[in-house]
């Protein structure tokens, strides 16, 4: 998902439903509900359905462009750095500033 959105690609996503916590479906749903992808459930997907969706997309360049723009707008190119910054903050280390990330003091910090 990260690569698809960073590249600004329209996509048809068929998540693996047995992935841990079904995270692939949740991630695919996020792009689909924002108009950046089409979500197809593996258990319900038939070859002819996929062919129909592909045919419709191929014949509608405007929809492909809109989906691509929406995918790119949803991209989080600094996500890895932001996660590293959060971990460093909690460990008490300084971390170089990450664009789009702002550390917010946790009022529950130190509680277990």
Describe the structure.
Strand 1, helix 2 and strand 2 form a beta-alpha-beta unit. The chain is elongated and about 55 Å long. The chain has five helices and two strands. It folds into two domains: 73 residues, Glycogen Phosphorylase B (Rossmann fold, 3-Layer(aba) Sandwich); 35 residues, no CATH class. The protein has a two-stranded parallel sheet. It starts with a helix and ends in a 21-residue tail after the last helix. It is mainly alpha-helical and 112 residues long.
- Distance linking N and C termini: 33 Å
Low-confidence stretches: none
Reported for the largest beta sheet, the result is: 2 strands, parallel
Give the SSE string.
Answer: HEHEHHH
Structural class by sheet pairing and helices:
mainly alpha
Question: Which class of the largest domain in CATH terms?
Answer: Alpha Beta
Mean pLDDT: 87
CATH architecture of the largest domain: 3-Layer(aba) Sandwich
State the shape: elongated
Measured as a percent range, the helix fraction is 40-55%
Strand content: 5-15%
Number of strands: 2
Radius of gyration: 18 Å
Report strand order across the widest sheet. Answer: 1-2
In short:
This protein is mostly helical. It contains 5 helices and 2 strands, in the order αβαβααα. The longest helix has 14 residues, at 61-74.
Note the main attributes of this structure.
single chain, 112 residues, mainly alpha, Rossmann fold, 2 domains, two-stranded parallel sheet, 5 helices, 50% helix
Task: Record the SSE blueprint.
Elements: H1 2-7, E1 11-13, H2 23-33, E2 37-39, H3 47-58, H4 61-74, H5 79-91
Parallel strand pairs: 1-2
């Amino acid at each position: 998902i990260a690569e698809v959105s960073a590249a600004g690609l329209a996509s048809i996503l068929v998540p693996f439903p047995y992935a841990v916590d079904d995270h692939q479906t949740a991630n695919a749903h996020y792009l689909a509900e924002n108009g950046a992808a089409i979500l197809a459930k593996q258990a319900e997907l038939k070859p002819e359905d996929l062919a129909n969706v592909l045919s419709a997309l191929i014949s509608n360049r405007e929809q492909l462009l809109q989906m691509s723009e929406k995918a790119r707008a949803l991209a989080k190119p600094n996500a890895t750095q932001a996660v590293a910054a959060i971990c460093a903050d909690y460990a008490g280390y300084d971390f170089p500033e990450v664009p789009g990330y702002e550390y917010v003091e946790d009022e529950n910090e130190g509680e277990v």
